[in-house]
Amino acid sequence: MLIKADKAYIEFILNVKQRIQAAQIKASVAVNHGLMELYWDIGAGIVEKQKQTAWGDGFLQQMSIDLQHDFPDIQGFSVTNLKYMRLWFLFWYTETIGQQAVDQLGKIPWGHNLVIISKIKNQQEALFYVQKTIENNWSRAVLTHQIEGKLFQRTGKAINNFEVMLPKPQSDLARETLKDPYKFDFLMLREKHDERELETALVDQVTRFLLELGAGFSFLGHQYKITVGGEDFYPDMLFYHTRLHCYVVVELKAVKFKPEYAGKLNFYISAVDGILRTEGDNPTIGMLICKSKNKTIVEYALKDIHKPIGVSEYEISSVLPDEYKSSLPSIEEIEAELEGVHMHT
To answer: Which helix (H) or strand (E) is 21 found in, with range?
Structure first.
């Protein structure tokens, strides 16, 4: 190729090679800050050279050949990856973000970085997923799932009274902990399911439910027995949040929000505060997850509530028609059938 004899190219490729040698990276290193800095520099160099010269993408082929020849033990210098370095640099580079971006981006693997820039169009949303990946140590599959589930658009959107009921910074953290709506696409329910059906399905799929709730939730139980004044009460689900350092009472409603639901949840929160909360715990918060809600009615309902409560909706795309659901055998029926088989064998 003619580009190989170009004096400017020779000088450019020598500089890149010196930068690689200075980084002292090895093929066994999956990701580190030095590798991200190297990719950033290479991406910046490609962009700058293509601005200054008439080189098209053809020169990346020669660049790839030269780098792989001199650094055969280092992966990542394919034509495709060089193009990704350029795209990655162009996505993130602004006069204000510069090194700050590299510091954050260097904390997550290269493959995660590519998922983010391929699926997201703006920096604010992309930085959200970078930070969440760092905080939660997401795998690439989980990161992809969260992006496709529009976590950014749902986070912090639940109607709540946290700003009034909780001190800062707990109120901000609590608000960011809740989503609206919650995606229960991993469930298979009838269109006209009830609370018990919803709760049972979530308990059966508690690992995926915890993933949807987000980092920090520790499941303590469902229909958790609390005795007040000699009477027993059973909140739908009880969690402890390890970052908020508080109990979280979750009530599920398979119908539209009604003001009395907030009052009942307020009672449960008071009971947990009085019975379970210790000196080291922050105030208990409540989450009411409904099939639907009217924003104005929720805001009025929470106005005179004295405990921190957030109200969200949930969505389910995997809905089974009611007429088919009724024809499916229950777990008990399946077990009885299996027992009958064993008795006749």
So the answer is: helix 7-23
Average pLDDT along the chain, 345 residues, taken 10 residues at a time: 65 82 51 80 92 83 92 89 95 70 83 95 93 90 93 95 94 94 89 90 92 92 96 97 95 96 97 96 97 96 95 81 47 50 44
Q: Which of 202, 210, 204, 272 is nearest to 235 (CA)?
A: 272
The distance in angstroms from the start CA to the end CA of the chain is: 76
* CA-wise closest residue to 114 among 129, 135, 97, 98: 129
Q: Which of 194, 151, 158, 146 is nearest to 287 (CA)?
A: 158
How far apart, in whole angstroms, are the C-alpha atoms of residue 49 and residue 33?
Answer: 24
Pairing state between β 189-190 and 319-320: parallel
Q: How far is CA 185 from the centre of its chain?
A: 15
The answer to whether the beta carbons of residues 63 and 3 sit under 8 Å apart is no
CA dihedral 84, 86, 89, 93 (to 10 degrees): -140
Residues 146, 193: Cα–Cα separation, whole Å: 26
User: Is residue 301 a contact partner of residue 262, using CB atoms and an 8 Å limit?
Assistant: yes
Residues 6 or more apart whose Cβ sits within 8 Å of residue 50: 56
Instruction: State the pTM of this model.
Output: 0.76
Find out whether 105 and 117 touch, Cβ atoms under 8 Å. Answer: no
d(CA 31, CA 63): 22
Q: Which two tokens stand for residue 310?
A: 């957030």
240's enclosing H/E stretch is strand 237-241
Query: What is the C-alpha to C-alpha distance for residues 104 and 92, in angstroms, rounded to an integer?
Result: 11
Q: DSSP assignment, residue 155? A: B
Length of the chain: 345
* Ramachandran region, residue 48 (left: φ > 0; alpha: ψ -120 to 50; beta: rest): alpha
Burial class (CB in 10 A: 0-12, 13-18, 19+), 296: exposed
